[in-house]
Predict the 3D structure of the following.
Amino acid sequence: MMRRITGIATIVLLLLCIQAGLSQQGSISVESKVDRAKITIGDRIQYSIIITKDENIEVEFPEFGANLGSFEILDYNDPEPVRQDGKVVLTKEYTISTFVTGEFEIPPATIRFGATDDTTWQELSTESIKIVVESLQPSEEGDIREIKAPLELERDYRKMIRIGAVALILILIALLTFYFIKRRREGKSLIPVRQKPPRPPHEIALEELDRLTKSDLIEKGEIKLFYIELSEIIRKYIEGRFYIVAIEMTTYDLLNNMEEANIDREVIDMVAEFLHQCDFVKFAKYIPSDEENQKAVQLAYDIVNTTKIVVQEDESAEDEKDAGAKETEASDDEMEAVTGEPAEKEVE
């Protein structure tokens, strides 16, 4: 009997020790959720990560970067912590979207946590979330009626010709009036004059990059504005160089269009690395180091210098010019030998 009482007391003591250890370490839970699991293409989804923990636990949220699976991060919000039932509730909110239809999955988010007085860190992951993205389709509802048989009318071709001629004259008058007003508003003459050819895209891009690097945006702490202008310069260059719409497109769609245009893989990889770094700063509020800033600027210069079109001078024309000059000199020497007087030379 005494042995049984001693055993029960030992088990109770062990349970009390385990409970005290768990109480000292604290508790933590993590969950992820979205406001909608079924959307149409281009809709925005509110994706949230919620951590409920004791005060003596420190946590580190995951760094998603520019993309979250097949979704692109458009905005980011970090609300203040909330205290509820003796716990601390931390929330991270992401506004995400995609322009591709199908069934997608937001991958699990992994957080790191540990007690304040403990150097050991552990990991805890959320559940993956499935999202269905549908395309925009016109409504198939409506009143469908049978087609009526066409009415046969006698055609007066003379009247049709007269009406057509009058309509054509009115259209020409309207077009000429519109053209006249447009030219006057733009301050141009009625007769177009020959203008200078447009500047090559790489010259404009390099000039804008020089202007941006000499600005004091980084010194003022305007890091996001600096990366917005840096990304816009390269997107404008891609439009002018490869004739691809780039300014109003997402990074995902732009890279897909570059692949469809059969652009070199090396160039696409450079552009992808550059745009992802810019998106990371623009949308995820990431503060890059000075080394990362220099790397982003150098990558922008490399994209332009690697893909720019350089027009080489025609060497054959220069050779013909040199040959003509030599023939002229030979003729002058022959004339001097015959007449005994030096030949007159044109002075440029």
The CA atoms of residues 31 and 50 lie 5 Å apart. The domain at 21-134 is CATH 2.60.40.4100 (Immunoglobulin-like). The helical segments are 2-25, 157-185, 201-213, 223-242, 251-260, 265-284, 290-307, 315-339. The mean pLDDT is 77.
